[in-house]
Write a structure and sequence with these properties.
- By secondary structure, the protein is an alpha/beta fold.
- It has 2 domains: about 220 residues, Alkaline Phosphatase, subunit A; about 100 residues, Gyrase A, domain 2, CATH 3.30.1360.
- The strands form 5 sheets. Strands 1-3-18-9-2-8-6-7 form an 8-stranded mixed beta sheet, with helices on both faces. The protein has a 4-stranded antiparallel beta sheet with strand order 12-13-15-14.
- The longest helix is centred in the middle third of the chain and has 19 residues.
C-alpha cells in the first residue's frame, strides 16, 4: 500500500525528533540525521505526470530515472483538490476528520456555499477546522516551524486550517522564491514549508501538455534545482504534491444548470466539476439519485451520502462534518466534468485541466527526497 499525504509531516517531525511523531514513510532509513527539513508542495504535480514533465525538467528527469534523490508514490486524500490536500498535509488527518471536504462545501443549516480558497473568517477558522496542525505540534515542542507563502495567503481561513502554528514569512510577486526558501532553511534548524502554484495554474488554464504547462515545468524544476544544490549536509528536502489531473474535452462536459432534469429537487450545489455535492430538497434525494444515475450513465459514480461515507473514501467522518457532504455525491470516473454555470464563476467552465476525482491520475502523487 502506498503512503499518504497525511504521512509526510509526521515523518518529517520524526526526523526532527519530535515526541509522538511516527515516520511511516521510513525516511530515516535513507535521510539519516538532519536538523532541518524543507517540505515543498508543487501544486498539481501528479505521479502520472512525471514522465511528461521530465521533458522540460532535468532534475525531475534524473529523479524518474533513479539518478538523483529518492522517489516513491503516495496518494492524496479525497476529493483530490487543493484545500482538502493542504489540510490533510498540515494536520496529518483525513478529510472526514478535519472537515475540509472539498473545494466548496455547503455550510450546514444554510443555503450558503463556502469556497475554501476565498474563505477568511466566516465560518470561524478554529471552529470549522478544529484539529491541531503539525506546525503547532512542532512549535509546542520547541522546534521551529516556518511557512514561506505569498502575502495574500496570510490570514486566510485555508492558511489557518492547514498551517496554523507556523511562523509566516510572506513573499511578494516577483521575489526570488527559491532564495527565500533557502535563506529560511539556512537560518535555523527546524521545518520550512513552501508552496508552488505555477504548474497547477497552467494545467487549469491551458491544459496538461500545453506549451504553457511545459514552460511552468521548467520554472518549477529550476527552483527545485536551486534548493537541491544549496542543501547543507544537515538538511533534507521533501518534495510532494496535492493531486494530479487530466484534461476534459468540451464534448465531455455536462452543465447541470442547462438541464432541468439535473436541477430538479436540488437545493444547493457544491463541490467542483469532478466531484459534486448535491444537497436536496426534503424528500427528493432518491429521485435526484435516480435521475443523475440515468443522465450520467457510466461517466460517474452517483451515490447517497451514507453509501459514500461507508466506502471509506473520506476516512472516518466526524458526525459534525457529515452535513458538509451532499445528500447525493457525484464522482466522475471518466474524463468528464459536471459544470454548474449558474452557481460558479464563468471562468470555471473555461478551464481545460481538472482534478478532484478518485482516479489514479488524480490521486497518485510523488514524494521526492533529497539529502544534503
Amino acid at each position: 500500500m502506498p503512503g499518504s499525504i497525511c504521512d509526510v509531516l509526521p515523518a518529517a517531525a520524526a526526523l526532527l525528533e519530535v515526541p509522538g511523531a511516527v515516520d511511516r514513510l521510513a525516511l530515516a532509513d535513507w535521510v539519516g540525521d538532519v536538523d532541518r527539513i524543507a517540505v515543498v508542495l508543487v501544486d498539481g504535480m501528479g505521479w502520472h505526470l512525471l514522465p511528461e514533465l521530465a521533458d522540460d525538467a532535468p532534475l525531475l528527469a534524473s529523479v524518474v530515472t533513479g539518478d538523483a534523490g529518492r522517489l516513491r508514490q503516495l496518494v492524496c486524500t479525497f476529493p483530490s483538490t487543493t484545500p482538502t490536500s493542504l489540510v490533510s498535509l498540515g494536520t496529518g488527518a483525513t478529510p472526514g476528520e478535519h472537515g475540509i471536504l472539498g473545494f466548496t462545501v455547503n455550510i450546514p443549516g444554510t443555503n450558503r456555499v463556502l469556497n475554501h480558497i476565498r474563505w477568511r473568517d466566516d465560518p470561524p477558522q478554529a471552529q470549522w477546522q478544529p484539529l491541531p496542525t503539525w506546525f503547532e505540534r512542532l512549535t509546542h515542542t520547541g522546534v521551529s516551524a516556518r511557512a514561506v507563502l505569498p502575502a495574500w495567503f496570510i490570514g486566510s481561513g485555508l492558511t489557518a486550517a492547514a498551517y496554523r502554528g507556523a511562523q509566516f514569512h510572506p513573499t511578494r510577486r516577483g521575489e526570488d522564491y527559491a532564495q527565500r526558501l533557502a535563506d529560511e532553511l539556512a537560518a535555523a534548524p527546524g521545518l520550512v514549508f513552501g508552496y508552488i502554484a505555477d504548474l497547477d495554474t497552467a494545467a487549469h488554464v491551458f491544459g496538461i501538455g500545453s506549451c504553457q504547462w511545459h514552460a511552468a515545468a521548467t520554472v518549477v524544476d529550476t527552483l527545485l534545482t536551486r534548493l537541491v544544490e544549496g542543501l547543507a549536509r544537515s538538511a533534507a528536502l521533501l518534495i510532494t504534491a496535492d493531486h494530479g489531473g487530466l484534461n476534459v474535452p468540451d464534448d465531455a462536459r455536462v452543465d447541470l444548470d442547462a438541464d432541468p432534469r439535473l436541477t430538479a429537487g436540488v437545493r444547493v450545489v457544491a463541490g467542483e466539476p469532478r466531484v459534486r455535492y448535491l444537497h436536496t430538497e426534503p424528500g427528493a434525494a432518491s429521485d435526484v439519485l435516480a435521475t443523475w444515475r440515468e443522465v450520467l450513465g457510466g461517466r460517474a459514480n452517483v451515490c447517497g451520502r451514507e453509501q459514500a461515507v461507508a466506502t471509506g473514501v473520506f476516512g472516518p467522518v466526524h458526525p459534525r462534518h457529515l452535513p458538509r457532504i451532499g445528500d447525493v455525491v457525484v464522482t466522475c470516473t471518466t474524463a468528464t466534468a459536471v459544470l454548474a454555470t449558474g452557481h460558479e464563476p464563468p471562468e470555471t467552465a473555461r478551464l481545460i485541466g481538472f482534478h478532484g476525482g478518485a482516479t489514479d491520475a488524480e490521486m497518485a502523487i510523488p514524494l521526492i527526497v533529497f539529502r544534503g
